[in-house]
């Protein structure tokens, strides 16, 4: 509890004039990031009050239950405040807290809070119904309010940005006299020799210049840091490298002319020896196979490019891939693409490695962002090495719509991952939506890895599927036809194909080409449509060329550039005809893909097979939808075809989305994807 009614100094006693309040009332409300939450009550009644008659209650989501409460205790002196904070709040909050509570003081901006006395409601913040009335904000009661209210009245409160703690621990109530209040340092700070810090104070009814002094408590000796400076509430002090080390300093701020008004730190702070700063890369800070960073608690300096900025923190990265990203807290004045050098302390906040307690941040200029590495959704959800790294997941389906926190889930077939809601994107996920790619930074909060897209540019709903991406040619003699590739537009919008490179540089004597290629480019491939082309080659057997030689087909579209690799393998050409004739056990594929409502799955079985052949269809959750079984000997050596009508074993039509079909035959097993679009 912080007393502001009387300040006694060697110059005498200075009184501050207060009107009297009718009862205790709530004087401050903090709904900050994470657990930065607190409620302050104020006694302006003119007499000490026994708090045992008072309770603070919370109504979760404004439902009217008021099921959670905190019972006050002790004596609250006149002019004093009582601060109740969350036990995991910022140290600046806890420094002025009189007690902690993790139940009532765990509210959001839609949870009304009220102060009651012997069961009767005195004062209220918020209103029922669950709407946000005070989200991400600090509210301070106006100094002319003298009575509590039982109906929420926004006009009685002053709004301040989220994580504003400056006004906590005291309340100005009808004060008509000039007043100075020292806010920082105010207890427990450890400032190093040679470091720079900001001294902060609040002035009320007083605008003249101020003097700032450093005082040692033991002998009351004072050193003038600045004889006169503008009364704007802050002054930057660079501590001399030879400043005496001591744990018992206070800061005094006073009128520069006559010293009245004045205030000093309520609690002492320390000046300590300069702590060495380790020069490390982000990889060195982050990389750990056994859990937390190896440098937790150390001061480090590192360099990186700002990749993402959210409300309370941002991310930097110094290269693509594993262990190369890290979070920085709290938010600083940076922009995406800034190349920065930053110094601060390595910490693990709820198992997420971050740089906090920032000592220095220098913007060196701008730089290109690291490339987003593509990883499976299942890998993103389970592995720490991509924490704080810019990544991308591709060809995923929405498997869970947004929850109350704006978080949803996608799955590319490897397992689902969470997509967070911190970014400024407008896309609203719908179950079974197909998304070509989602880019963002991997965040770790509340025990889960989450991909955080930054804006709508990171969520790509338009694109093309090229299949296959590799064509392997085993050729002999004249040209061989029959190796096809398909360009499919699974988007809900048309996609323009700008160019397809239809001739290669493999050999002027052995050319290849795309058969019947007659598109007028640019070509608009309509939503849900596909194109299939046949690649033909002329590659005679030559003793001097028995090796794999590669070339590419390039497909340029507004959705990006894709390449199909052509492998010409002359080492197997001697047996090429036999390889083409003899039946091999193989899952060939399905056509069409995507499909609605039927598709044909093609496969082939070796004549020497002595096992049953199974063809199974699974959904994204790994649940078996349909199964086809062929006993040994029931299939010939020719290509086989099975038609799936999009229904499960019970004959019920399945939903749109990504499915997997798997073929088992003896030791042979292969799985492929197909997309049902309705």
The CATH architecture of the largest domain: Sandwich
Look at the structure and name the CATH superfamily of the largest domain.
Answer: Lamin Tail domain
User: What Rg, in angstroms, do the CA atoms define?
Assistant: 35 Å
Strand order of the largest sheet: 10-9-4-3-13-14
Structural class: mainly beta
**Cα-to-Cα separation, first versus last residue:** 65 Å
Indicate how many domains the architecture comprises: 6
Biggest sheet layout: 6 strands, mixed
Q: What is the count of DSSP helices, taking H or I runs of 4+ residues?
A: 4
Which stretches of 5+ consecutive residues score pLDDT under 50? 1-18, 541-546, 572-582
Helicity range: under 10%
Q: What characteristic shape results from the CA principal axes? A: elongated
Give the overall pLDDT as a whole number: 86
Determine the strand fraction and express it as a percent band. over 45%
**DSSP E strands, number:** 52
CATH fold-level topology of the largest domain:
Immunoglobulin-like
Characteristics:
678 residues; mainly beta; Immunoglobulin-like; OB fold (Dihydrolipoamide Acetyltransferase, E2P); 6 domains; six-stranded mixed beta sheet; 46% strand
């Amino acid at each position: 509890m912080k007393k502001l009614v009387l300040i006694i100094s060697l110059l005498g006693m200075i009184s501050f004039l207060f009107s009297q309040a009718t009862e205790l009332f709530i004087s401050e409300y903090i709904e900050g990031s994470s657990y930065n939450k607190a409620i302050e009550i104020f006694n302006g009644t003119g007499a000490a009050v026994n708090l045992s008659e008072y309770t603070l209650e919370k109504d979760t989501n404004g439902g009217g239950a008021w099921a959670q409460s905190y019972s006050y205790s002790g004596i609250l002196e006149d002019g004093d405040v009582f601060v109740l904070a969350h036990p995991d709040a910022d140290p600046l909050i806890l420094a002025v807290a009189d007690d902690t509570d993790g139940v009532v003081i765990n509210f959001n901006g839609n949870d009304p809070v009220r102060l009651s006395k012997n069961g009767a409601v005195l004062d209220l913040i918020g209103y029922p119904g669950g709407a946000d009335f005070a989200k991400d904000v600090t509210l301070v009661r106006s100094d002319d309010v003298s009575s509590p209210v039982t109906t929420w009245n926004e006009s009685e409160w002053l709004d301040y940005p989220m994580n504003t703690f400056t006004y906590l621990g005291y309340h100005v109530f009808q004060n008509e006299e000039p007043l100075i209040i020292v806010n920082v340092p105010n207890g427990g700070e450890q400032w190093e020799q040679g470091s720079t810090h900001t001294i902060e104070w609040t002035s009320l009814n007083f605008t003249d210049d101020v003097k700032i002094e450093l005082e040692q408590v033991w002998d009351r000796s004072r050193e003038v840091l600045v004889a006169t400076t503008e009364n704007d509430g802050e002054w930057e002090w660079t501590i001399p490298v030879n400043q005496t080390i001591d744990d018992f300093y206070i800061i005094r701020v006073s009128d520069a002319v006559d010293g009245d008004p004045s205030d000093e730190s309520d609690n002492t702070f320390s000046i300590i020896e300069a702590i060495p700063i380790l020069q490390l890369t982000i990889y060195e800070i982050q990389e750990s196979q056994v859990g937390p960073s190896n440098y937790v608690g150390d001061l480090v300096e590192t360099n990186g490019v700002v990749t993402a900025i959210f409300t309370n923190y941002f991310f930097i990265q110094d290269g693509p891939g594993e262990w190369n990203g890290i979070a920085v807290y709290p938010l600083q004045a940076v922009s995406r693409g800034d190349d920065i050098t930053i110094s601060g302390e390595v910490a693990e906040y709820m198992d997420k490695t971050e740089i906090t307690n920032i000592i220095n941040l220098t913007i060196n200029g701008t730089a290109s962002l690291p490339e987003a590495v593509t990883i499976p959704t299942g890998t993103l959800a389970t592995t720490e090495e991509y924490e704080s790294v810019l990544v991308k997941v591709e060809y995923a389906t929405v498997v869970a719509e947004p929850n109350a926190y704006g978080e949803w889930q996608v799955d590319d077939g490897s397992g689902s991952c969470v997509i967070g809601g911190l970014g400024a994107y407008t896309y609203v996920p719908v179950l079974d939506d197909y998304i070509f790619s989602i880019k963002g930074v991997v965040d770790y909060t509340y025990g889960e890895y989450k991909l955080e897209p930054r804006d709508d540019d990171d969520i790509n709903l338009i694109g093309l599927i090229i299949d296959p991406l590799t064509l392997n040619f085993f050729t002999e003699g004249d040209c061989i036809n029959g190796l096809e590739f398909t360009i499919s537009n699974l988007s809900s919008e048309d996609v323009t194909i700008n160019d397809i490179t239809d001739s290669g540089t493999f050999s002027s004597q052995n050319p290849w080409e795309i058969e019947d290629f007659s598109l007028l480019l640019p070509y608009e491939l309509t939503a849900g449509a596909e194109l299939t082309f046949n690649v033909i080659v002329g590659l005679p057997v030559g003793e001097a060329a028995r090796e794999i030689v590669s070339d590419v087909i390039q497909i340029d579209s507004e959705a990006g550039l894709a390449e199909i690799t052509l492998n010409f393998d002359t080492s197997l050409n001697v047996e090429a005809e036999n390889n083409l004739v003899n039946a091999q056990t193989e899952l060939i594929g399905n056509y069409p893909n995507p499909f609605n409502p039927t598709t044909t799955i093609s496969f082939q079985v070796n004549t020497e097979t002595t096992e049953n052949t199974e063809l199974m269809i699974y959904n994204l959750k790994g649940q078996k939808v349909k199964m086809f079984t062929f006993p040994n000997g029931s299939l010939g050596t020719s290509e086989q075809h099975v038609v799936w009508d999009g229904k499960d074993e019970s004959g019920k039509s399945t939903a749109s989305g990504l499915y997997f079909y798997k073929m088992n035959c003896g030791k042979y097993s292969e799985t492929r994807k197909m997309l049902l679009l309705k």
